[in-house]
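Obj.: predict assembly geometry.
Materials: sequence records (below).
Method: joint structure prediction, all chains together.
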Amino acid sequence: MTNAMQSDYILETVHVTKQFGGLTAVKDLSIQVPKKSIYSVIGPNGAGKTTFFNCITGFYKVTSGDIILDGESIVGLRPDIIVKKGISRTYQNIRLFSNLTALENVMVGHHVRMKAGWFGAVFNTPATRREEAETRKLAMELLEFVGLKGFEHELATNLPYGMQRRLEIARALASEPKLLLLDEPTAGMNPSETEEMTAFIDNLRKELGITVLLIEHDMRVVMTISDIITVLDYGEKIAEGKPEEVRSNPRVIEAYLGRGAATQHEAQAA
Amino acid sequence: MDKELKFTWKDILKYGAIGGIVSLYVILVGMVEAFDERYIIAETINLGQVTLFVPMFVLAYFAANNARKIKSTAFAIIASALVGLISGAFVAALLVLGTHYNLRSVFLNVSPGLLEILHLGRESMMAAILANLVIGTVVGLAAGLFALVPHRWSNALLTGLAFVLLMGIMQELMSITFGSKDWYKPIGEFIYAKKGLSWGGTALFLVLGILLSLWRSSPSLHPGKKVAKMPRKQRVTVQLVAWALGLIILLALPRILGSYPSEILTTVGIYIIMGLGLNIVVGFAGLLDLGYVAFFAIGAYTVGILTTTGKLATLGWNFWMALPVAIFLAMMAGVLLGIPVLKMRGDYLAIVTLGFGEIIRVLVLSDWLKPYIGGAQGILQIPKPRIGSYVFKGPEQIYYLVLAGILIVGYVAWRLRDARVGRAWKAMREDEDVAEAMGIHLVSTKLMAFATGAAFAGLAGAIFAAKLGSIFPHSFNLIVSINVLSLIIVGGIGSLPGVVVGALILVGMPELLREFADFRMLFYGALLVAMMLVKPEGFVPEKTRQRELHEEPLEPEIAPDTPAQAEI
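Observations (raw structure tokens):
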């Protein structure tokens, strides 16, 4: 069974539950993310989306349930191991290494694919030199890919907001992930920036062939680029399906707009 | 009017009062009297007067600077003179009070000797008061004029004055050097009078400083820029020659300077090695370690125990056999300390490491270990290292050992900084959680930082033991950790040249001024506070940190496709 899954899904969560004391932040959540898809998790504030991300990346230990990456269980592994297995992420409130340059940020992202240790660095072995050069080249390419060419030596903290967002994605891409987790990549952006970012995410899949798992608030973004959407409310899945299916789901409307809106919508439909 | 853009008569009063209070403080802690015999320029100015007038000068300078921006040049001059006058009045007031009342029950330093100094050589009280006021005004006026000359020139003048001050302070040291060889003597006699610089020497160093500063600030003559413009091949040659020259000077230093300055340089050098180590832990990895002296002690004691020929003799190894063991044990101690503190951050980490340092010190002093490491009596008769027939016996020889240590350790730190390991450290310093989420294994990365830093301290300790020939527990106080941390901060945290500059200022300077010993901590405190206010990135900051603190963020309007000016 697992083998069959391996070919179809890059990530599966199986009945994942996360409790903080008495509070259940994520409850019995199962999703299946197909390879090379853009999969969105949406829901109102406090629905448990970011907690769910933190469970996948190993920052939180799940209370129960299983998380399977490409046919292999990754539940309970340390965050740095999970990165190595192929998941990397960005943050809702940008968390760059502010006092490192853009280039250094991306090079840190590639850390997990590098081997050089203490002695390699001190004795500057040919292998280390080659690896450094390759990493540098990769980082330069990624910076160009995200439109930061020319800003390589700028401190991350000095970059404008939109660039910081894209730099964070470049850093995540540098670890050569199979699955990229983006936590509200358009938060705090104006409509034209949002549009640009949406096209950019779409491009990620097209050009790099990686799967994107997305948390998003902006409905327009979600509806434009997602293949599948899961809707959370109070940590539970309340709907799942293609954008058009989710859009008209009364429970979703209720969660987002309140009960009155849902009944009104039903009345209109009828 | 904007509140910030005001400079009124009230501000003049405020600046004057601050200047006066600082001057009073300097007098009351005893600096003026203690430095009274330290002539900078023979028969003219002594260090006590310098410490007295510097606060007035600085405050008047600030006042003039602000006043000039807000109002007119004339107002700036008046403001600076008034600030000086008010500060002088404070000193005069102390003179009057001290003469009529006995202040010594509270302010121990208000001695007849001090009052004598404050009389400024005038007989009558009225004349003395007047003299204080006049001198204050003159100092203020000088500061005002100083604020009005173009920046480049005032900088040059300041460099010249700093040269004079430094050479004046170093008189005792330099005269030993000049006295050591016959052909030096005429130079020494030209530069120095009996006490302090001669007028010739003063002029020489003033001009030297000014020229040097002007040369460096000149857009067409600046050495760095000139070299940068050369074709690649020529540039490499010039750099190689510069490095070789630097190395030759470093190698020749003990021969030029003689024994006592070499002694100071070795002490500074041992602190540089420690600074480079702690810089990895604190500067790169952001782990605040206050127990750093422990590793220094472990290095020193390992060499002591393994090599001593005294009554604690054990294996009787030579220095070179004991050295790797010392470094290894210090490194292991670094790892051992690292393990329990892996989960700690910031203040908690500082407290625990502080405790670790104290544990080692208490252990070293304990009766329990006394049969092995000598307790308070320490370890005596540690033989000097030797290579073949060359014995590293005095400071002039140990100097080379220290220099080799600095070069090796500096090279290692420099290589690590820009490698994968160094990036991981810096990432961890910036944000531990994100670093982990980027695939950095926190445990091994932290332990590697602790181990590397500790190994450097172990090396420093080993050399320290060999240098002294005997070691005692009191050499491994908390104050060593504090010194090393301070020198990193003053030099510029995370910066490698900064460690060298910091060590020269904080370790070298106090060695030059014996009278200074009592005020060492005061000086550290004042310097650290001043640094944090004026130059928080340190004297020789790391490139990125300088930009962090002194650069405006990019304007968001910049289109993504306009390339920024590459700085590196």
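Conclusions so far: Residues 202 and 225 of chain A are 7 Å apart (CA to CA).
To do: check interface contacts against the pulldown list.
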